[in-house]
Write a structure and sequence with these properties.
Elements: E1 15-17, E2 19-22, E3 25-33, H1 46-70, H2 74-88, H3 90-102, H4 107-123, H5 128-149, E4 162-166, H6 171-175, E5 182-187, H7 195-203, E6 207-209, H8 214-218, E7 223-227, E8 232-235, H9 239-262, E9 267-269, E10 272-280, H10 286-291, E11 297-301, H11 315-328, E12 333-336, H12 371-384, E13 390-394, H13 400-416, E14 426-431, H14 434-437, H15 440-444, E15 449-452, H16 454-462, H17 480-495, E16 499-502, H18 510-518, E17 523-526, H19 531-540, H20 543-555, H21 559-567
Parallel strand pairs: 3-4, 4-5, 5-6, 10-11, 10-17, 11-12, 12-13, 13-14, 14-15, 15-16, 16-17
Antiparallel strand pairs: 1-8, 2-6, 3-7, 7-8, 9-10
The protein binds phosphoenolpyruvate (PEP) and magnesium ion (MG).
Phosphoenolpyruvate is lined by residues 299, 301, 339, 432, 453-456, 503-504.
């Protein structure tokens, strides 16, 4: 697991640390990207000037988005096209105009005031998706200011392959980096799920973000080494540190080589076949799953069809998305019913404000109230099942009654459809709530399969909100309590011959993946880029690792204790 911490600090004058944002090792000369002076000149017609600047920023971001898409960097393309749309949207322009009309503010001040106001408004909606839009507003405003100041968006000239350091980079600046010249970068601001991190990963450029005091610490140093997984940074590294970084790099290169060799194979773990499927968030991820030759799709998060849109997706829109996945991916496609609520609101699903949204109306708990939406999704899934092997999975199930209600609805919808219009589906549940893990034996008589969502199972086991910045250390799925619940699920499922997968993020961590296999999990579902790393790691292990896992489950009281016992048994 990455060491992710929000309170990263400068520990001494030679090492600093931040948040690993894009994996890989970089070592090389430091190139500092200074924040240029963005004083704006006087404009005869400030409104017209800012209008033109916004048009030019929108066009530039559109071009960068197109380039990213052509290079197959879909996530980067999406971030940039969202920012291009925002630059094109009159919202920011009108707000600047209103401040100029009020008088008293110059163009720079009006731009700052309008941007701050909009960011505050979006952030105050306490919705993570809109909070991300707030960051977009800030980045678009910065790009507009640079344009008005006559500063090139590309930033500094880089004469030799270097490691960049900066207070911050915008999404557009990151997308424009040349991976041949930028060995890696580190910034003072930013988080692991921010746009800059997403784009760095898509470029394959190692990066560390959120490094407090970086520029001051680096002052006077000429070389920098960074580890984009752990967030460690070494300034003017000595020989021992260089050797350490070089050997980490060696391990990464070796793991990549083994992963490439695993392409198209079936993973085996201590003599047992383990499927490794892909998690996808929509049609845009299907290419990645196909390229990785994953064993199907183990989690199709359908929320993307429901979020950021004023209207619910139609049956046909959903059918087309599910059919495309079924037709293009080899193996079963597990479609998850829309998991709205908690941290995922939808505009057209009006839920009450709640004190504890993760313990409130979420997932399966809202389907009865929004049964039209649920029935539409069931119809789309049943139609798509004519085109491939499709399973349907219900999130947040806590009781057998909830599953019985869902099963009855699926039967009812299916009975209403003409037989030739629908296919057969397996119907399973996610194990995210401890009550289900502990009743997996009797539940296995009802359901076709289980899939463990370790992200939620960990938060509900440890009583720690998964989005709470200060509670990161509780979110370790290798806590023995979480693993005992996973094992209880596997044991319960086996009594009725049912299969169990793990589709939470933990399955993409090689150590955790092997632990899950060792306690009886049949299938793992991971981000497409991790499929072959996980296949190759699983296939290298022996039964000694299984013995160590069982010993650790008995002996360890904490996640670090568990890790210490099993880590040394993992074959690299
Ligand atoms: C999980 O909880 O582990 C999971 C896969 O679901 P999500 O992260 O979408 O809540
Ligand atoms: Mg979940």
């Amino acid at each position: 697991m990455n060491s992710v911490s929000n309170d990263s600090t400068v520990s001494n004058d030679k090492t600093v640390s931040g948040i690993g944002a894009s994996p890989g090792i970089a070592i090389g000369p430091i190139k500092t990207i200074d924040q240029v002076d963005l004083e704006l000149p006087e404009f005869d017609n400030p409104k017209e000037a800012v209008k033109q600047a916004m048009e030019s920023v929108a066009a530039n971001m559109g071009v960068l988005s197109g380039k990213a898409r052509e290079a197959g960097r879909e996530e980067a393309a999406e971030v940039l096209s969202a920012q291009a749309l925002m630059a094109d949207d009159p919202m920011l322009l009108d707000a600047i105009g209103a401040h100029l009309d009020d008088g008293g503010l110059n163009l720079g001040e009006a731009l700052d005031a309008a941007s701050a106001e909009l960011q505050e408004m979006l952030a105050s909606l306490s919705d993570p998706y809109l909070a991300a839009r707030a960051a977009d507003v800030g980045e678009v405003a910065t790009a507009v200011r640079k344009n008005l100041a006559g500063v090139e968006a590309e930033g500094a000239e880089i004469a030799e392959p270097s490691v960049l350091i900066a207070e911050f980079l915008t999404a557009a600046e990151t997308a424009d980096l040349d991976p041949a010249m930028v060995l890696g970068f580190a910034t003072e601001q930013g988080g692991p799920t921010g746009h800059v991190a997403i784009i760095a990963r898509s470029l394959g450029v190692p990066a560390v973000v959120g490094v407090a005091g970086l520029l001051a610490a680096a002052d006077g140093n000429t070389e920098l080494g960074l580890d984009g997984s752990t967030g460690e940074i070494a300034l003017d590294p000595d020989t021992a540190t260089r050797e350490d970084f070089a050997s980490r790099n060696e391990r990464i290169v070796q793991a990549q080589k083994l992963a490439a060799e695993a392409l198209g194979t079936t993973a085996t773990f201590a003599g047992r076949e383990i499927l490794v499927a892909a998690n996808i968030g929509g049609s845009h991820d299907i290419d990645g799953a196909v390229e990785a030759q994953s064993d199907g799709v183990g989690l199709f998060r359908t929320e993307f069809l429901f979020l950021d849109t004023p209207e619910p997706p139609t049956e046909d829109q959903q059918f087309n998305a599910y059919k495309e996945a079924a037709e293009r991916c080899d193996g079963q496609v597990v479609i998850r019913a829309f998991d709205i609520g908690g941290d995922k609101p939808a505009e057209f699903i009006s839920l009450p404000e709640e004190e504890n949204p993760f313990l409130g109306l979420r997932g399966v708990r809202i389907y009865e109230q929004f049964s039209d939406l649920f029935h539409t999704q069931v119809r789309a899934v049943l139609r798509a099942a004519k085109f491939g092997d499709i399973a349907f999975m219900i999130p947040m199930v806590a009781t057998g009654d909830e599953f019985d209600w869902v099963a009855a609805q699926v039967a009812e919808v299916s009975a209403e459809m003409a037989e030739e219009d629908r296919g057969e589906i397996a119907l399973g549940i996610m194990v995210e709530v401890p009550s289900i893990a502990l009743t997996a034996g009797p539940m296995a008589e009802r359901v076709d399969f289980f899939s463990i969502g370790t992200n939620d199972l960990t938060q509900y086991t440890m009583a720690a909100d998964r989005t709470h910045g200060a509670l990161g250390t509780y979110q370790d799925p290798l806590h023995p309590a979480v693993l005992k619940l996973c094992k209880a699920t596997a044991d319960g499922a086996a009594t009725a011959g049912k299969k169990v997968s793990v589709c939470g993020e933990a399955a993409a961590d090689p150590l955790a993946a092997c632990v899950f296999a060792a306690i009886g999990i049949d299938k793992l579902s991971v981000t497409p880029s991790a499929v072959n790393l996980i296949k190759s790691t699983l296939s290298r292990q022996s039964s000694d690792f299984v013995d160590q896992v069982h010993k650790a489950l008995n002996d360890a009281a904490t996640a670090p204790e568990f890790r210490r016992i099993v880590e040394s048994a993992l074959l690299g």
